[in-house]
Amino acid sequence: MRCLWLFPVFLFTVAAQTTPVDCDAGVCWDVSPQICITEQQDQQCNTQLQLHWVSKLPLDTCLYIAEQQLQCWQNSTEGRWQQALSWQSSMLTLRSADNTVLLRTELQVMSRKPARRRLSSPWSIF
Amino acid sequence: MRYWLLLICVFSIATLADEASACPESGQCVQEQQLYLNLALGVGQRSNPLNGGEKLPLILLPDVYYYSNQWFFDNGKLGTSWDLSQDWTLSLVGQLNAEKGYFQKWFGGSAFQFNSGFNQGFNSSISTVRVGPQPISIHEISKRPTAFDVGLQLNWFATNWYMQTIVWQDASNTYKGQHASVRLSRSWETDIGNWQLATALLWKSAKLIDTYYGIDNNEAFYLPRYNGRPSWQPELRLDWQKPLTERVTLLAFFRYLHLDDAMTDSPLVRSDKVTTWFFGVSYRLY
To answer: Which end of chain A is more exposed for a tag (fewer CB within 10 A), N or C?
Structure first.
């Protein structure tokens, strides 16, 4: 059983639908993937995250995962971003220059082997 | 027949039950499809309330469990479970009956038994002197049977609280009786370790008591007879664990089980209690 740890960790990602994209107040984006499936519980997801946002008006925006800034754009009507990331369930947000959240998408990490409760007390036979 | 109806009822409830829910951080969680094996090395002992019965030395203790999506094995107990809600889980379980353990000869003698002054003093201060019929040693009676029980287990979980109710039925047609228990425990964390205090009430049917502690006409003619009665046995248990590393943990536990008159009236029984204690260090192999 211990040898299982020696095997590479398999991560499965579920791509988000390409249409329709999420829109709010004239800003739309497409984030992929939005759900990542790991082999074990509490395991981080290591995968390529990509997004594309468009706006009717030019904007100064920044992209955040949780409170970590990933990328900023100046006076742009669209932006593309792609990078391999290690993440757990968290919120991806696109914010304006005054830190107002323009768009938000929840990134979910799910496990193929979920944790469950133990139904007996430890050392219960003694 | 009524037990089959009960089982059918349980399966009907289980079919309607929700799929397994995620384990909250406050509970004791296990990963599905992963074997857990902990070994504890230390000193400890379980007393034996029977005349001629050997104390069980506790030196190397295993804690083995494996949970799949629905089936589980946990320290000798095999079962399948269904989450009725976020806080309630119902299980159909099976395991060997533990009663025969008091009649067992452990490691061929008493080499590992601890008879410290502390232990003797403790025993003498609490033991009651049994007044009853002529005592009988377990070496004078016929061999007690090995039985396999199946049961229904209901677990309730809350933050730091845990309750377990189990009703067992002899499935091996050996003692043809039942036993049951209700257990409530509370856990808390301190700077010096994690504690769990549990109280339980055990009930054992007359047929179970009679099979293991009764003296019937199949025994030698000169031995006093005893017909078993239903027995109620309260229990108190304190567990302490202090994790040192991810795999190494200091642990100790103390368990006190009180035996009522239905047990102590048997000429086989010399004590009204069973005490179990252990102190050691555990290592998680898997």
So the answer is: N
